[in-house]
Amino acid sequence: MSDIHSEKILILDFGSQYTQLIARRVRESHVYCELHPYDMGLEEIKAFGAKGIILSGGPKSVYDEGAPAIEEELFELGIPVLGICYGMQLMSRHFGGEVIAAGKREYGHAELQSVGTPGPLFDGFFADGKSPVWMSHGDHVEKMPEGFEMIAKTANAPVCGIQNVARNLYGVQFHPEVNHTPRGDALINTFVRKICGCSGSWTPGQIIEDAVARIKEQVGSDQVILGLSGGVDSSVAAALIHKAIGDQLHCVFVDNGLLRLDEGDQVMATFASNMGVKVTRVNAQQRFYDALAGETDPEKKRKIIGNLFVDIFEEESNKLKDAKWLAQGTIYPDVIESAGAKTGKAHNIKSHHNVGGLPDYMKLQLLEPLRELFKDEVRTVGEELGLPHQMVWRHPFPGPGLGVRILGEVKEEYCEILRRADAIYIEELYESGHYHKISQAFAVFLPVKSVGVMGDGRTYEYVVALRAVETKDFMTAGWYPMPYADLARISNRIINEVKGINRVTYDISSKPPATIEWE
Ligand SMILES: Nc1ncnc2c1ncn2[C@@H]1O[C@H](COP(=O)(O)OP(=O)(O)OP(=O)(O)O)[C@@H](O)[C@H]1O
Ligand SMILES: O=c1[nH]c(=O)c2[nH+]cn([C@@H]3O[C@H](COP(=O)(O)O)[C@@H](O)[C@H]3O)c2[nH]1
Ligand SMILES: NC(=O)CC[C@H](N)C(=O)O
Ligand SMILES: [Mg+2]
What we know:
The protein is of the alpha/beta class. It folds into three domains: 8-195, Rossmann fold (3-Layer(aba) Sandwich); 204-392, HUPs (Rossmann fold), CATH 3.40.50; 411-506, GMP Synthetase, Chain A, domain 3. Helix content is 33%, strand content 24%. Helix 8 runs antiparallel to helix 9 and helix 13 (412-431) packs antiparallel against helix 14 (484-497). The two termini are 46 Å apart. The structure holds adenosine-5'-triphosphate, xanthosine-5'-monophosphate (XMP), glutamine and magnesium ion (MG). Residues 229, 231, 396-397, 399 line the site of magnesium ion. Keywords: ATP-binding, Glutamine amidotransferase, GMP biosynthesis, Ligase, Nucleotide-binding, Purine biosynthesis. Homodimer. Catalyzes the synthesis of GMP from XMP.
């Protein structure tokens, strides 16, 4: 078994908005990396065994009292270090440089100018001695650190790139990790591949080979149970685990009555018929409708749905002899976010449910083969495993499903109406080529009636709202500028074809201040 973790980069997070993007760029260079808080101890850092360390940006100023600092010996380990923004300022100070509040702050686009010879990090970065970069800083390095050369500046900031080639220490004031720095990805690639000497073994084929070997080793001859939703994460997890242990995997698909049109049949057909995976379908529609009857509060609805999922899971695992593992499609952003959530600093806007919020009595161990992967890596792995393209590139669908897309009380009748409207909407998006330009699209049922006229007769029926958003990380999102002609066609079809709807609206709210789902 090749060890794809033998080459890895450590990213120390000083609280930048972009730390996750640094990890994305490193992964795109086919190098494994992990994010850790800036105060990771020296012994832990040594034990991690990184081939390179990246220090992120951060909101504080290095000269503030109590500003986040690092283990001083970090620079003595002989491991290459790249400091970005705050990271460069820390490095500069450590080596006797001076950081001050800048007279001219820089936010947004700036033109970086090469100073002296570009050096290994900036290899190929400049064209005619210049390169567009993206800045976000109020401080700058005024006096150079000892033993370093200055390799770049801008009109406003005297020091924007520093290097000590002999010790493999580099710093940049700009943000190479954001898309607005056009050659930034190449710079990060140069750092991890050329300077740190990583060979780039983090490829889909290797990830699969490694995961399969690890699953086999962990699970042995035990049985594994997995909640399969038909969404990207649980589907890829199922395919991966099935490749590793075949029939020892038992998937449970819960039809909670809150799924999209024909979704249950599609999931069963794809997995059971085409892929030979054992899937038990639990028809629990009525149980969910009964449990939700009369409840209008969004948070209470989410809790009801989540709890019922767990109950059903428990029942199913009790039916299975020797089930020792519960597999989940947890991915890296889930891991990072729940680590953040544990600090308790964030407001609870809504309770996101993942089935398998394990109750103590469940006694199953967790198997999470995707917990190191980002969504797009999960998708690439899914493609490599031969999952249908449509399944891999589907928009995410929340666990509580239509339960959070029917405002207020959930009724079976409303679910039927919404399923039909949503299916038309999504079909039209596929046909017009918009689907893959949109991050997530769906219809929402509004339990209010308005007056209309159809075939000379008065109608008094419900309203459907259409939502389509563009986003990278689902934390912030903009509404999709759908062409009028497409909106017209979709609205026309929904009103004509779906009984119970006589009005369609398009949601033009961004997140924040709205959220993506309506509840
Ligand atoms: N109807 C369902 N039956 C069984 N398990 C489910 C169901 N809905 C959700 N789950 C479980 O909850 C987990 C979290 O759901 P989530 O929507 O985040 O992921 P997903 O459905 O696998 O992927 P995607 O984000 O693409 O929708 C799933 O991985 C799956 O294990
Ligand atoms: O698995 C999930 N369980 C949930 O309870 C849940 N609630 C929202 N979402 C999805 O998360 C993303 C952000 O949604 P919001 O802007 O509505 O919070 C969007 O992609 C939402 O679809 C969920 N996913
Ligand atoms: N983005 C950053 O890392 C900013 C660093 C520091 N707070 C500054 O304003 O210069
Ligand atoms: Mg889902």
